[in-house]
Amino acid sequence: MTKFSKELVGATTIPIILSVLSKGESYGYEIIQAVKSISEGQITYADGTLYPVLHKMEKKGLIESFWKKGDNGRRRKYYRIIENGIQQLDLEKENWLIVNQIISKLWKIDLNPI
Amino acid sequence: MTKFSKELVGATTIPIILSVLSKGESYGYEIIQAVKSISEGQITYADGTLYPVLHKMEKKGLIESFWKKGDNGRRRKYYRIIENGIQQLDLEKENWLIVNQIISKLWKIDLNPI
DNA sequence: ACAATATACATAGAACTTCAATGTATTTCA
DNA sequence: TGAAATACATTGAAGTTCTATGTATATTGT
User: Fold this and answer.
1) Looking at residue A37, which CATH number applies to its domain?
2) Is A72 within the bounds of a domain?
């Protein structure tokens, strides 16, 4: 499994979490599993990494949280994307596209268009 | 002009500098201009940002430096990519491709199709 | 019944990072 | 003469990821 640079992880964590939450509310542990699954095991967030990021995102007003009891009675802190976060996700997509084009030009190879 | 997130800048600075240097030796100020030109003004590194990154890259053994007098007699610190840096650039390219694919997938599909 | 594993959230602290601000100099050009 | 561009460097503020550690409950295998 490839170990990505801290920088690459940093650039993608928030857009990826926003993407996941844009498809429906979720909680920390489930987000980790979802990203692991989608990336086919290539991105596995440590919980100690994800939770502070979720807190930061909530503080910035991108998402909101609420406690809920799961099927099994265990309490979970759910997160839901809010208006600000939707706008932020759009912005992140735009920026990724631009940067990807610049890099693609520099490398003169075809990268996956989004 | 779009202002990119610190994170996105962080993820791309080293690969971009390595790319520029893989096309020929250069010095700080020229690298800033080259990236600005290639990105059509969208990426403009502050000198206070670039120089510490160059120092870090040299310390890590990705590039080497040497003083040279330019046409006008002004001294410039040139940088040249070395073996380690070429390998690092290949790795960065690979990783960018993988992450781009994952993100591309996330932005295209529904996580929980009903 | 018991142990191991998976689920679930949280924080502290180490080791980074970017970048604005500031400083020093030289060259070019109106 | 003076402004702008060229050229490199460092400091310090504010932020970042991630390891380690802690708490606790649910599930699964033997």
Assistant:
1) 1.10.10.10
2) yes
This complex has an ipTM of: 0.84
Domain carrying residue A36: 6-107
Which 15-34 positions of A have CB less than 7 A from strand C?
A: 27-30, 33
- Residue spans of chain A under pLDDT 70: 1-2, 70-73, 109-114
Task: Indicate whether A114 belongs to any domain.
Answer: no
Query: How far from the centroid of its chain's Cα atoms is residue B8's Cα?
Result: 11
User: Is B67 contained in some domain?
Assistant: yes
B106 touches chain A (CB under 8 A): yes
Radius of gyration of chain B (CA): 17
Whether A113 is covered by a domain: the verdict is no
Structure tokens at B8: 């996105």
For the stretch B8-21, pLDDT in tens is 888 999 999 999 99
Q: What is the DSSP letter of A23?
A: T
All residues at 6 or more sequence positions from A33 whose CB lies less than 8 Å from its CB, including other chains: none
| The one-letter amino acid at A15 | P
